[in-house]
Structures are given as structure tokens and as C-alpha cells.
Amino acid sequence: MDSSSPEEQPLTKLSLITNTINQILQHKFSPKQRSSEQPTPEQPSPEQSTPEKSTPEQSTPKQRSSENMKLSLDQLPVDILDIIIEMLNSPKLRTPLASVNKKLHALLQPIIFKTILMLWGTKESPRQISHLLRSLQENPQLRELVKIIRIVPCSPFFESSPNDKIPVKNMGPAIDTMFDNIGGAKDIMVDALGSLEKDTGAVRALAKKGDTRAIVPLLATTLPHLERLLLTGHIAAQQNLLGSFILACVNHATESGDMDKLNVPLASLKHVELMLDYHWGYNYKITGVAATYLAFFYLPRLETMTVHAVYKGPQKWPSEQPPVATCLRYLEVETYHNEGRYIVNMMIRVCPALKTIKWTHLWGENDHKGFSLTAISSVLQAAAGQLDGVILCLARSSGKMGSMFGPFLVDIERPETFVTGRLILAPLVHATRLTLTWVHLFGLAASEDVQPGPSTFPPNLEVLSIRASRLITQEHLFWQMFSKVRVAREFVGKCRLYAPRLRVCEFGLGVFVKHPLEDLIKRDLIHAGETQGVKVTFHPECFASPTLFPPARGDDSVLPNDWKWLVRDDDKEEKDDEEVEVDEVD
């Protein structure tokens, strides 16, 4: 390794990141992909065109090739960006964002600052936030680059205000500078927050305390090209003022005729995630957050939306005029009880371009009302002409008033009445992908009355994924293992009968418990699928047993008297012998 001067020492971490990125690119982008994804050359920004101090690396062919890969680096997904940011913010080599901004290599600068990741609720949070805000004000080019904001709490159970337990210092000058520079957006912010905060001074005071209710709208007005906003836990729960801000922005654009130009704060947003922890969703004190996530549907460029719908949320739009989300194509929503179908129905009807929906049904403590598959089907049928992918889930909720967990399905006294009705997805003529987690549909619950029928599946279904709950991991149901394998054989046949275009059937976590005869079970079902023209696959953790150890007995003595394998065990032994012979020859 070449010796470096003391001036180059601060770049050591950046050099490591550069090498990491190059390694990632070799795996993420094949040579064919890189050549086919070459975008048209863009005009370099003032920062990139400014000559830097020469270093031994900058004139080498290796460095020039890295610079040529810069355009491909812009295509990196969010998870890779998170790795880069995590490396920069490691405890051993933590560098304030303001100083990092001055030292960043030209190859890394447009990537690292593409994402702002803030961990809220630690002692370092105020310092990091103030450095970030100061950097945004001192560097106009930086504001143009940022496209993603992620704000997460330091703990999912940190239920009090994130500002009550940490001192917030030295943020005043940065906040004042931002307020002085946001121009006309200041009036929109004051109007939006004016219902609860009477004047500009009160809004400034909120921001200076580090309150996310003021910080998030402030960042939105500062970043003109923001595309993705991700808020988690109590950070998302306390954004009740953000909805008012969004509606004020939309109303301002409508009144001034700027809706076509989209020159309003937050108009560039394409992807939004507001994920509450379940115990927050069950908290009656935060029902105002529902108006916030419903307000996002008014944004003109919204493409994907992920939201945890709070318990007993509103069932009407926050504005008199319902939105028309013409660009929204992916919707992921978690709802409680059957009331969730009203919220999902509201959302579906205003999304004419919706292609994929993931709908998770939650139930909580002492909640034995259950769910109606017929009612759920009627909601999805409202989008029959557009959906090509449907994911339906059934999950336990964290309870209310400090009780964190709902009951297991096996703990419900009458599971045959917990999930009722029939799933009717035949009207979804464009759907080719379907994921289900209801064990009833697979015959794994006490009730066998809910079975696939001619109207269960979309007619053009190609890929079906069955992800059952952890029902069969309970020990008292383990001995029904092989009856479930028999049901699985029949299920594949029924799926092929009622979905003639089905080509892949995946069994997921918890359908089968870990068992010494795992390989034979897999081969048995794969063979059953082949006879039907269906490729049977298994989730990587399909045979995992996360809660209980399975009984030790795993030989043929546990098989039912009338049990017959579709494939013989000695077939495997013969295959193994052949492999050994080949290995010896090699």
C-alpha cells in the first residue's frame, strides 16, 4: 500500500467505502447490465467540475474507471445506500456531516447525500441534526441531491415524545437560517400549522426543540427533489401536523394554478412509508395520524404507499374533495378488524393505476370477532380491472394498554368461526400473483370447511404463495404432520384445477415443521406438483420451527398405517451412490 500524507488521512474511510462500492457493483451489475444501463451523459454539477487537490490516485486508470461508473452508482438501491451511510457513521470514525461534505470524494458525494438517515432519541441526535441542517443551508448543491429521508426512533418502545429525554442544543442558528431561506413556503407552513401553533415564532420554537412535527415539514420545504420519505414508530405517530401541511400545500397550488407546474413543497414525493409499531396503532391518542397518511394521497406524483392504519381511524377523506392518485401503483396497508375494509375500499377507489396491494389484517387481545373472507373479497373486486398482484395476510397485533400480543390462532376457542365466508378472487382477471397466509385455505386449521373452489382464484393466476401462520409448530399438532402432507398433495391438484395457468406454487414459513424426513416430504410434494405441471418451491425457512422443538421421533414408525410415499426413499440412496462414484472418478 502506498504511503499517504497526513492530509489524506481523513479520506481513509472514504477509500474503504469506494472499494466496497466497486465490489458491490461487480455483484449487483453484470458487465452486460452496466453496458445496457448507460444513461445519457449529464452536465456535471458545479461541485463535480471544480478541480480538487491532486492525489496519487486521481490520475490512475483505476480512478478514471471508477469515475466512469458514477452514473451506474446512481442506480444503487436504498439498502446499499444505507450500508454506505452506516460505514460513515460508525462510532469509531464518526464525522460530522458538515465536515464530511467538504471531504467527500466526487464519486461518493452524489450517492451518500442522496439519503438522509436520522436516528431520533439518542444523545447524539441534536448534534447530528444541527450539523445536517447547517450543511443543507451552506451547500445549495446538496439540497438538490437529497432524494430520501429516513427517520427512525432509537427504540420501538420509546413511547414518550422523542424530545422529552434528550437535551437539544445549538440548533437555534441552523433553524433560523432555514426559516429565513424557505421563502414562500414559510407562509404555507405557518398556515398549515397555525391551527395548533399560532404564529411563526411558535413554529420556530417547535423546530428548535427538535420536534419532528416541525422538522419534517421544514426538510420538505428545503429539499426540492425529495422522492422518498420513511418514518417509523413514534416518529410516524407524531406527524399529525404533517397532514395539515400537505393539504395546505395542495390547496395553495390549486388556488395559485401551480398544480401543473408542481412547484410546491412535497410535490416531488413518490414513495412514502409511515410504519407504526402495533402498540402505537392501537393507541387511541394518535388517531389524528390517520388524517396524515390519507393526506399523502393528494400528492400528484405518489407511486407507492405503505401505511399502518390506526385502530378506529377515520373513514372519510380529510378534504371535502376526494383525491385522485393517478400515479399510485403499489399500496401496502395494515388494518384492524373488519373495519379495515372500509379504509382499503376508500384507498382503492381513488387509485385508478393501482397494480399491487398488500393487505394485512390484524387482531388483538380478546378479539374473537374474526374476519369475513366474503367481505374482504368484495373490497378487492372493486379493483378487478387493474390489480395484477394481491398479497393477503393474517397477523397477530400487539395489544392495547400495555398488552403487547394478540392470541395465537390455535388459542381461539372456535377457529372455524374466526375466519368465515369464501375468498372470491375470480373477478380479478388481470391478477397473476397471489400470496395467502390463511391456514384455513390450506386445510391446516381445525376447520376444513373453507376450501378452494371454482371462484377462489383469479383465472390467469400463475404464481401462488402459501405462507401459513405458525399453527403447526405447536407440539400437540405435530403428529398431524403427514395428514397435512396429504392435504398439500390435494391442494396442489385443486389449485391446478381451478387455476389452469398456474405454474409455480410456493410453500412458506410454518407450513411444515422441521422434521428428519424433511427431504422426503419436499421430494414428495415436488413430484406431486410435477404430475400436475406445477413447479413446487419452498421458502428457505419453510421447515423452521422457531418456537418449539419437534419430537425426536422422525423415522417411519410415525407414519400412518395407510401412508404411501409418492417417491421412494431408496431412490435418494441410489442417487447418493451415483454421486459418490462420480466424485471418486473425478
How is this fold's topology laid out?
Elements: H1 12-28, H2 31-36, H3 46-49, H4 61-68, H5 70-73, H6 78-88, H7 97-103, H8 109-112, E1 115-120, H9 125-138, H10 140-145, E2 148-153, H11 172-181, H12 185-193, H13 200-208, H14 212-222, E3 228-232, H15 234-237, H16 240-256, E4 271-275, H17 278-281, H18 289-295, E5 304-308, E6 330-336, H19 340-349, E7 356-363, E8 371-372, H20 373-380, E9 389-396, E10 419-420, E11 433-436, E12 463-466, H21 481-498, E13 504-507, H22 518-531, E14 535-538, H23 569-585
Parallel strand pairs: 1-2, 2-3, 3-4, 4-5, 5-6, 6-7, 7-9, 8-10, 9-11, 11-12, 12-13, 13-14
Helix pairs in contact: 1-6, 9-11, 12-16, 13-14, 14-16, 16-18, 19-20, 21-22
Strand order of the largest sheet: 1-2-3-4-5-6-7-9-11-12-13-14
Q: Bin the strand percentage.
A: 5-15%
The count of DSSP E runs of length 2 or more, i.e. the number of strands, is 14
Largest beta-sheet details: 12 strands, parallel
Overall average pLDDT: 65
Span between N and C termini?
A: 41 Å
Q: What would you report as the Rg, rounded to the nearest angstrom?
A: 28 Å
Low-confidence stretches: 1-11, 27-81, 91-107, 156-167, 399-410, 439-449, 470-479, 544-555, 578-586
Provide the structure class. alpha/beta
- How much helicity do the residues have? 25-40%
Judging from the principal axes of the Cα atoms, what is the shape? elongated
